[in-house]
Amino acid sequence: MPASASVSRAESLHDLPATYLEVGQLDLFCAETVAYAERLMHHNVAVHLSVRPGAVHGFDQFAPESRVARGAMADRVAFLKNL
């Protein structure tokens, strides 16, 4: 896959906007998401990373009324309001 297919494959991440990343602790993509957040921070990009304890991929779709999903939605809204 070429680097242009995904920003996470780009050599330089400078000048990207503030980024919100959220992943479930049990999500297959958890380690990849955390590594991407670390790369962004290394390139001085403001990052809000939330790793949701005990959550799987799509947790907010499977249980939208759960405490973890409601917390995630509140965090997303707060992040957007602060842009």
Summarize the structure.
The chain is an alpha+beta fold and 83 residues long. It contains three helices and two strands.
Describe the SSE topology.
Layout: E1 19-24, H1 30-42, E2 47-52, H2 59-62, H3 67-81
Parallel strand pairs: 1-2
Largest sheet: 2 strands, parallel
Shape: globular
- Averaged pLDDT: 93
- Low-pLDDT sequence parts: none
Query: Number of DSSP strands?
Result: 2
> Hey, roughly how much beta strand do the residues contain?
5-15%
Radius of gyration: 14 Å
**SSE order in H/E notation?**
EHEHH
Strand order of the largest sheet: 1-2
Instruction: State the helical fraction.
Output: 25-40%
How many helices in DSSP terms? 3
The span between the termini is: 32 Å
Structural class: alpha+beta
Number of domains: 1
Description:
- The chain has a two-stranded parallel ribbon.
- It is about 40% helix and about 15% strand.
- It has one domain.
- The protein contains three helices and two strands, in the order βαβαα.
- With about 80 residues, the chain is an alpha+beta fold.
- The protein is globular and about 40 Å long.
Keywords:
alpha+beta; two-stranded parallel sheet; 2 strands; 83 residues
